[in-house]
Amino acid sequence: MLSQLTDMPFHLRDYATAKKYHDRIKPIGGRGRNAGLRPICDTKNGRKKTQYLIRERVQTAQAPAAIECVLYETPVVTFVEDGTIILDNTYSSQTTNAFMQEILTPYRAQVAEKGGETWVGLGDLHAYRKHWWLPSGDRVVFAPDGNSIRPVEPRLVTRWEVNRAAAREVYGRFESFINHCLALSKVIDPESFYRNNMEYSPYYYNYNHARVFCFGSIPEPFDPENITDYWAKATTSVIFNSIENTRNWTGAGFTTTFSLIPKKIKKNVHDSLKREFSREIFTPTKAEEGVFSLPINAEFIL
Question: How crowded is the C-beta side of 51, counted as CA atoms within 13 Å?
Answer without folding.
Answer: 6
